[in-house]
């Protein structure tokens, strides 16, 4: 399965993903720049991505914990999510996200 | 002005788990430590980012929270009486003619020691700056990330952004002295003490503060004096809020900070070290934990503990080059047990 990631410069990357991996881990594993400073504990909000509208509705809604962390994103958008809280599964094959400037290291 | 000077054996920059455990390994070798940290308490990421979150890969602890690990480490190093200096950032590290080091903090204190250990994790925690054009120009005068003196906000048009305790506490504390008070948050849910939220709503209902759902779009002003903030509301419209003081509260993020100017060899924002002593490109300066880099590095707390143990041996050789070192175990050595205060 794959995810399609637009980086900070607008360049599009097609990344091979594995079932059960967090989208944050896939992005970092392929070497794209992402701060993700707490390492996936939903405790820092620096793995923020903007999810394409067609995919946003397919995701499980953000938990209260994730919403609380999104409060710490200065330029949060309606389609902002923390990529450490999105687990890869068959239904998300082809997921399109854009890296948010807040995640840049 | 007299400058406070402190001389010690080892200066540890960073009081996270790895910096704390280094005190233990250095202490067994009779080396005294001073720790400097930008946060107001020990624990580093464990205390700031995930105090309540479980950690499962500390040897001997099937599960331990960030705060418990910090508390246990503090107890473990108590016999060595480490000295802590919080709320300070190390600005510079300079090698002196006798090969010892002079460390200067942003508070102007001077520390002198033959060995410096950088255990600064992901760098220093600094407030998140909203990505609004030109905001830097207003910082210091009109834009603040914490309240140092309440007087700076007296008779001012204050705008606070955020939904946590810091945001709400300062709305409530500054409202009585401010000329006007506006709170902006992205949603109508707050992760703050319920009593504060209730009080804020009561002030809003009484017309004593303005509350908008939205975020900062742009800033207007002259020089470092802010005069207006444009808010993009959740409903999609732009509104003007006359503002002379802006307080954004978006939590902290880690930045490498001044470390990059100390002349150390870096590898992609990490400090290059050897794997025998975890020494940097400058003899006498060591780097342990998440901030270092070597082939095969894993950013795990347990790796940092191991690095601290080997670093301590090398530090001892620098400080007492002629002393014969005998490797001992805490289980069997009465000498080590005495140092630990075992009766």
Number of domains of chain B: 2
| H-E string of chain B | EEHEHEEHEEEEEEHEHEHEEEEEEEEEHH
CATH topology of chain A: Ubiquitin-like (UB roll)
Largest interface: A-B, 21 and 28 residues
How is this structure best summarized?
The complex is a heterodimer of chains A (about 100) and B (about 350). Chain A has about 100 residues and is an alpha+beta fold. Chain A is built from 3 helices and 5 strands; from the N terminus they run ββαβααββ.
Report what the structure shows.
- The complex is a heterodimer of chains A (105) and B (343).
- Chain A is built from 3 helices and 5 strands.
- Chain A has 105 residues and is an alpha+beta fold.
- Chain A has one domain: Beta-grasp domain (Ubiquitin-like (UB roll)), CATH 3.10.20.30.
- Chain B contains 8 helices and 22 strands.
- In chain B, α1 runs parallel beside α3, α1 runs parallel beside α7 and α5 packs across α6.
- At the A-B interface, α3 of A face loops of B.
């Amino acid at each position: 399965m794959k995810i399609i990631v637009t980086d900070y410069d607008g360049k599009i990357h097609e990344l091979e993903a594995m079932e059960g991996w967090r989208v944050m881990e896939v992005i970092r594993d392929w070497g794209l720049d992402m701060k993700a400073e707490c390492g996936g504990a939903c405790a820092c909000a620096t793995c923020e991505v903007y999810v394409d509208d067609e995919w946003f509705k397919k995701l499980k809604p953000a938990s209260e914990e994730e919403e609380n962390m999104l409060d710490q994103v200065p330029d949060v958008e309606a389609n902002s999510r923390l990529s450490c809280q999105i687990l890869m599964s068959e239904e998300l094959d082809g997921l399109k996200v854009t890296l948010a400037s807040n995640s840049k290291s | 002005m007299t400058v406070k000077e402190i001389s010690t054996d080892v200066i540890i920059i960073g009081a996270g788990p790895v910096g704390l455990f280094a005190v233990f390994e250095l202490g067994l070798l009779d080396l005294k430590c001073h720790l400097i940290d930008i946060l107001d308490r020990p624990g580093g990421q464990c205390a700031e980012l995930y105090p309540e979150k479980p950690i499962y890969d500390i040897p001997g602890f099937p599960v331990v929270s960030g705060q418990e690990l910090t508390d246990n480490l503090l107890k473990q190093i108590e016999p060595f009486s480490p000295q802590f200096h919080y709320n300070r950032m190390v600005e510079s590290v300079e090698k002196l003619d006798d090969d010892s080091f002079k460390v200067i903090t942003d508070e102007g204190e001077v520390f002198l020691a033959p060995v410096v250990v950088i255990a600064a994790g992901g760098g220093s925690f600094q407030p998140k700056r909203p990505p609004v054009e030109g905001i830097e120009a207003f910082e210091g005068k009109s834009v603040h990330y914490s309240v140092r003196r309440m007087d700076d906000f007296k008779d001012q048009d204050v705008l606070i952004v955020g939904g946590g305790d810091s945001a709400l506490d300062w709305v409530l504390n500054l409202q009585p002295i401010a000329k006007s008070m506006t709170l902006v948050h992205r949603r109508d849910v707050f992760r703050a003490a319920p009593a504060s939220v209730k009080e804020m709503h009561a002030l809003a209902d009484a017309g004593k503060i303005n509350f908008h759902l939205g975020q900062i779009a742009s800033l207007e002003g002259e020089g470092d004096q802010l005069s207006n903030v444009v808010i993009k509301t959740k409903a999609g419209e732009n509104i003007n809020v006359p503002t002379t003081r802006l307080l954004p509260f978006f939590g902290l993020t880690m930045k490498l900070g001044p470390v990059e100017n100390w002349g150390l060899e870096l590898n992609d924002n990490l400090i290059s070290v050897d794997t025998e002593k975890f020494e940097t490109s400058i003899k006498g300066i060591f780097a342990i934990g998440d901030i270092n880099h070597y082939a095969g590095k894993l950013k795990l707390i347990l790796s940092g503990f191991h690095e601290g143990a080997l670093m301590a041996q090398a530090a001892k050789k620098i400080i007492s080059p002629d002393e014969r070192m005998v490797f001992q175990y805490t289980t069997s050595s009465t000498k080590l047990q005495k140092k630990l205060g075992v009766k």
